[in-house]
Amino acid sequence: MRSAHHPATGDLSLPEVMAALSDPLRIGLLRVLADGGERGWGELRAPVAKSTLSHHLRVLRDAGVTRTRQEGTRCFVTLRRDDLESRFPGLVAAVLAAAEADGVGGGVRLASDAA
């Protein structure tokens, strides 16, 4: 399997990051990953097909919002919070606060969370 491309911190583009965060499901993924933990793709639950979830994770990765690490056949994803904060101070906190207040992305959860 080919390795994933992750833009360098200095190459993060505000329009690309904002475009990646323009979908409620991707905001939900941001909310789930905001605790700083690394999550296996199989731990993520969303109201979409696995192929669609994979697409959304790729959009976030390509924009530099997340980092994907492969270990054998498993993939793990983390939020690039420090990189985003250094490039766009306060952006992640503002998006998370607005998403929480408006209930955006609430359909995304971890497999270990109660339904």
Automatic annotation (TrEMBL):
What is this protein's record name? Answer: DNA-binding transcriptional ArsR family regulator
- What's the superkingdom here? Bacteria
Task: Please report the stretch or stretches of sequence annotated as the HTH arsR-type domain.
Answer: 6-99
What keywords would UniProt list here? DNA-binding, Transcription, Transcription regulation
Please tell me whether the keyword DNA-binding is annotated for this protein: yes
Q: Which organism is it from?
A: Streptomonospora nanhaiensis
On whether Plastid is a keyword of this UniProt record, the answer is no
One Pfam family, short name:
HTH_20
Q: From the Swiss-Prot or TrEMBL record, what is one GO molecular function term?
A: DNA binding
